[in-house]
């Protein structure tokens, strides 16, 4: 059998330990599939002494993480430290610069610096892979980079954050409100103590930017992702969506439109109304799912565990096997020099239907005021639900669904209502996912 | 840009024409992703003159299909002729023997001769790929060969035949019976004039045998697949399953059990009761879906169009792109010499729950006779439904669901009832898919 592929592992949190366990558990099978053994030779983490439940004695301990990058006995540096910048990025640059392969699960770093790292990897003819950075154990980076490679994709979307999906589907099951379910998610380990990146949609935005770059062949543009989280979604939104035939999910959507110079990319993470019959409606709990729509493949769905030490380790080691096989390929499917710059689309030009929920004072004339603003802005109302006085402080929730139209009209209607004494809280707009 | 990858295309049915259209439509994008152009240089089919809606003049026409295999101007032979043996197999052997790459969508041939062809390909260091042979446009061969490569899988299952799934989900929607929906599927082009291979489960069995070999690293063993089709499923079975919280789907299931010498492989295609909450329950119409359960990845689902010219072309060209990139890899994930022989499991040893439907004469004592046989065979009944006299000829349908137990007990119960005058038609047993 050929020479082993030798790995330096930086970061011994749950995922790092998961990778060690996986490589130990499935050692022979991995060697058979990779064509050669995959061996961890060196490890590093902040604290050496900590008991992590695995025996680290077979591996060289390295105190200075950055020293991993230049060890002569290492072929691939595996970064599981996290953080978009700082030590992870320094390590990535140093490893690739030294011509080592570089594998990471770090979505923030790939979203911010993936293009630079891909260019460096190409220059050094080094492998750079990040399957684990998107949707945990689901092989969707490979799916888009290789599986759909023959297709022009025009839409990539999905449920990219398990924490939000857990909270939303639990709200759906229990009728409880957001705050209560967030606390429950934290208790069960599905949400961090500081859940900001998850519930505000930033984590999903990292993943969406990566998928869009791979699927569309565009230069990764995380800054252009427009992001809204789920903190404004209320139990009565979920109930009203249900009565209309929808569930609410946090969906990242990337859409490519136009041709040539006029090509535009829209990247958004927002809570959306998903029709019951759509496959994403059936995705509950901390599961992730990605849909890619190709001109020949049609709609493809990839679904599975979006996080967790074992699924993430599965994705990390799949990358290592690809590298061992000599099949790593271009990280974004095409050479990084071929990735094209694509200007962000104006979201106002989106043509679609929206759910709008107003929180209003319970007095005569409020509905007339709202519907007049809609009319003046050119928004056509498909259905309107006024609920009884059961929200806090004697306010009433008025929800409506618009007919298909340009999104900027909805924006204009809300501008017209801005400052109105009838509205006791900012309205919430959620798009209806096109089937 | 590097030299083009030159393709000889055998077979100009809908898929062959789809491949020509795809390669023409997405030419530049494919070249960017593949690192070099992919060019069809020669084509062949039975009839030369036929109008296929595409211009064949750019390609050399070859009258003798077998001559494709040895043309000096060809790198890869693409076989879209079909048939497990005959000209397709002769071409496969000749192409690989000549050291050409060989790509096919031919599930029957791969199921019967895939191991031989993989061995020949390895000997000649030629690429051999068949993504399109399983589940149309879904990149599930790649998913199992590479995406889950770090995992020991213990179960691979899915909806592998679009015709059956269309018929069953239409029966569910309309309440109509099998024959009526088969006719409707034929009218709409979802079923062939001779639907035997589809409705008897043979097509799904071909695909299952291929997936099992890739996922488990076993020598492909199509003969060992135990296959039952959907012709015995009645509208009242679907109604009764529904009342119990299930839909009926034709599911191919491959399960690996035991260790070392005692390792056993169970491969079966059968109509199954699928719990509403299971992702396969949401798969309707001609869609396919494959679930792989890995020890680290957990449950992964791959879903999409299972057939059709465009999705199949998408899968075929993905294989060509892999070959152009030099990333074809071992067709069954490990070198064919490493694939292990695995004896078939005894299906009677399966521990599970079953749905059993009896068609019985409507007279006193019948239920007592059936339940006594169950008791004597050691089958424990979880629930029992006796419907009114609404089936043909004054018979009554009695359905029951068993508690978990060994399948051979159910077989024994049916043996005890064999020849009983109370049973007016053979019973139908369908397993309940484990969640």
From TrEMBL, chains A, B:
Q: Which keywords annotate this record? A: Amino-acid biosynthesis, Methionine biosynthesis, NADP, Oxidoreductase, Threonine biosynthesis
* InterPro entries xref list: ACT-like_dom_sf, ACT_dom, Asp/hSer_DH_NAD-bd, HDH, HDH_cat, HDH_CS, NAD(P)-bd_dom_sf
Record-linked CDD domains: ACT_HSDH-Hom
Question: Of which family is this protein a member?
Answer: Belongs to the homoserine dehydrogenase family.
Task: Give the organism, scientific name.
Answer: Qipengyuania aurantiaca
Q: Which residues form a coiled coil?
A: none
Lineage of origin: Bacteria, Pseudomonadati, Pseudomonadota, Alphaproteobacteria, Sphingomonadales
Enzyme Commission numbers on file: 1.1.1.3
Q: Where is the ACT domain?
A: 355-435
Q: In which pathway does it act?
A: Amino-acid biosynthesis; L-threonine biosynthesis; L-threonine from L-aspartate: step 3/5; Amino-acid biosynthesis; L-methionine biosynthesis via de novo pathway; L-homoserine from L-aspartate: step 3/3
Class of enzymatic activity (EC top level): oxidoreductase
The protein depicted here goes by the name Homoserine dehydrogenase
Top-rank taxon: Bacteria
């Amino acid at each position: 059998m050929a020479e082993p592929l030798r790995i330096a592992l930086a970061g011994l949190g749950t995922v790092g330990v998961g990778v060690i366990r996986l490589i130990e558990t499935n050692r022979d099978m991995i060697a058979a599939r990779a064509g050669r053994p995959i061996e961890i030779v060196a490890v590093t983490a902040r604290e050496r002494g900590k008991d992590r439940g695995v025996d680290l004695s077979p591996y060289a301990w390295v105190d200075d993480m950055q020293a991993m990058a230049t060890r002569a006995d290492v072929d691939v540096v595996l970064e599981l430290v996290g953080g978009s910048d700082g030590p992870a990025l320094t390590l990535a640059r140093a490893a690739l610069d030294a011509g080592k392969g570089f594998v990471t699960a770090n979505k923030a770093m790939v979203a911010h610096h993936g293009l630079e790292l891909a260019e460096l990897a190409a220059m050094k003819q080094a492998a750079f892979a990040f399957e684990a950075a998107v949707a945990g154990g689901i092989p969707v980076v490979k799916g888009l980079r290789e599986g759909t490679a023959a297709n022009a994709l025009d839409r990539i979307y999905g449920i990219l954050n398990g924490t939000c999906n857990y909270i939303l589907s639990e709200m759906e099951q229990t009728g409880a409100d957001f705050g209560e379910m967030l606390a429950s998610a934290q208790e069960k380990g599905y949400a961090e103590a500081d859940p900001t990146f998850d519930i505000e949609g930033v984590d999903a935005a990292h993943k969406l930017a990566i998928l869009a770059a791979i699927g569309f062949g565009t230069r990764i543009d995380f800054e252009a992702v427009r992001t809204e989280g789920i903190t404004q979604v209320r139990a009565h939104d979920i109930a009203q969506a249900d009565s209309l035939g929808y569930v609410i999910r946090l969906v990242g959507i990337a859409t490519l439109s136009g041709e040539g110079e006029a090509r535009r990319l829209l990247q958004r993470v927002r809570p959306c109304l998903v029709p019951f019959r759509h496959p994403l409606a059936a995705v509950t709990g901390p599961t992730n799912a990605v849909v890619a729509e190709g001109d020949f493949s049609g709609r493809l769905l990839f679904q599975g565990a979006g996080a967790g030490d074992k699924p993430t380790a599965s994705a990390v080691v799949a990358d290592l096997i690809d590298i061992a096989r000599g099949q790593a390929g271009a990280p974004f499917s095409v050479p990084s020099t071929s990735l094209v710059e694509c200007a962000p689309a104006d979201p106002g030009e989106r043509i679609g239907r929206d759910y709008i929920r107003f929180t209003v004072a319970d007095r005569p004339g409020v509905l007339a005021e709202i519907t007049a603003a809609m009319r003046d802005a050119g928004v056509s109302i498909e259905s309107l639900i006024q609920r009884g006085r059961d929200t806090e402080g004697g306010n009433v929730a008025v929800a409506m669904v618009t007919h298909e139209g340009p999104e900027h009209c909805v924006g204009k209607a809300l501008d017209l209502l801005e400052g109105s004494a009838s509205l006791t809280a900012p309205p919430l707009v959620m798009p209806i996912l096109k089937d």
